[in-house]
Amino acid sequence: MNDTFLRACRGEKTEYTPVWFMRQAGRYLPEYQSVRGKVTFLELCHNPELCTEVTLQPIDIFGFDAAILFSDILIPMEAMNLHLEFSEGKGPVFRDPVRSRKAVDDLIVPDPDETMPFVMETIRLLRKELKVPLIGFSGAPFTLATYLVEGGSSKVFLETKKMMFQKPQLFDAMMSKITDCTSLYLQAQARAGAQALQIFDSWAGILAPVDFKRFALPYVQSIINDLRKVTDVPIIYFANNGATLLDLSKTSGADVLGLDWRVNIKDAIDRVGNHAVQGNLDPIALFLPKEELEERIKKLLDDAQGARGHIFNLGHGIVPQTPPDQAKIAVDAVHRFSGK
Amino acid sequence: MNDTFLRACRGEKTEYTPVWFMRQAGRYLPEYQSVRGKVTFLELCHNPELCTEVTLQPIDIFGFDAAILFSDILIPMEAMNLHLEFSEGKGPVFRDPVRSRKAVDDLIVPDPDETMPFVMETIRLLRKELKVPLIGFSGAPFTLATYLVEGGSSKVFLETKKMMFQKPQLFDAMMSKITDCTSLYLQAQARAGAQALQIFDSWAGILAPVDFKRFALPYVQSIINDLRKVTDVPIIYFANNGATLLDLSKTSGADVLGLDWRVNIKDAIDRVGNHAVQGNLDPIALFLPKEELEERIKKLLDDAQGARGHIFNLGHGIVPQTPPDQAKIAVDAVHRFSGK
Fold first, then answer.
1. ipTM value of the model?
2. Which pLDDT score is estimated for B212?
3. Which of A215, A315, B219, B293 could connect to B288 by a Cys-Cys bridge, CB 3.0–4.6 Å?
């Protein structure tokens, strides 16, 4: 068992810098496309055997130091009693956006083992196969809330912020339910065998610090607080586009803070002190010519020297157009330059 | 003549904090909608009388301390020999994205007075009417380049970054032409009577600092350097979502740095030292109930006390759904709390 990733999360010494990529099991891989060609995205998410297969693909191909459960952050929202669709091009769509007291009251806090057995089964299957740690994950409550309230993706998140600003009690009631759901969901993943947990706050970066502190962070803290009572797996919190939120994010309770590519990793490390960090190559830097890509990776590793722990990752998900050969160059470079 | 805005830009003492809003002449105003109902967006941009009318509307209605020329950052791109359309819902579309050597070679550096006389005429008409300073503007070269290369708006800006990373010479050649065009365009605006100039780098925030420094900032510096030789109007540089770029942005040569709402204004002021700042209320905070909106504005004004100069603004454009009454509350609050 290669536990380099787990040790880096905990700030323990490692022989080299572990690396994995957000969305490493995904559309840039022909092997993934071939599985995905046979089923819809939601069918794939609901199928433990296929989820296991696509989760393993990038580990076998590139030698990543951690696997991440193949799923989608919105899967537990289905279990909360919402109708979710993924349409080509448009992304996720909730047929009935959550904007009223009735809609919030109708949300269910589901038992994750009962309503999402396919996720727990995927974790169990993966643990039998994997020789690297398995990361479970969820969306952060605020990010999940944006999808529920907007009914899908958004540009300015008007409806979400309007609810925050004009109906804070309703917003809090919704967030409490999402938080309970997420908390139970992550606990179930840990019980099923997830060895680390990442909380994706993909849309935290649309909030001013004052609003992040009031409307997003407390719910993350609550989830992590709950988790600490029942598991000691490392917890990663990734607030995307969150450079101005770092001073707050470091109070989340997470062991590791994920960094997007907009922040210089050295500056971030200076600010988050006693936390390990994960990141933060611009995903599109993978399109650089080999030599320049390697140079950039070397620089990033050097800049991260002062961290309590560093897990190399992209600053956001790998884009579908990325040539797999370029991913290979990057993974190999991280390993070689960091002493593997 | 109310020159409070100009004095704040220059870091001189003012009796109160001047305020204007990005997109203040825009869709949230019924008076604008009424003009816009009769013509297409591009027809409006090309018509000096109508541009003058819509520019004046928010000044008359709200008592803003500065007017900004009604136009679009992509107008000079038409003059560079590109076919531009605005489609409802999809935003701007360039029929033939610029991605090849031939496409770059085909770009023209236009004479702004000859190709965009309607802009200069608008400025002259406005100067006859206005009792507050008139701001001219342009897009920053990098932001303009993203539209040219992507052919419109984008989510991850893959084509732009691919060109940067894989064909840096071609990218630089394109940027040089856009820079020359922009430089001449802003100079012409100053000659026509613009009393301040804002450079909008709406998409700077998609760049890692290292790439901003290499691919975006030098072109802004070049434009400002050119401007300084021919005019002493204050220059505002707004790198949207640019909190991690502030240390670089302060070397742009601008007098004023625009701040989006993601950064705490006090932190930003600590970092940019000898610059005036402009910003930075979350545009959607205008949906707060009156009392809370006023409280937030008071806090922002307090936080900005240490600035060399502060021009109150939103952290991005006002959204079309904003009730005009809320804009009025905000403008009045800025004036009242800052001592007008």
1. 0.97
2. 98
3. B293
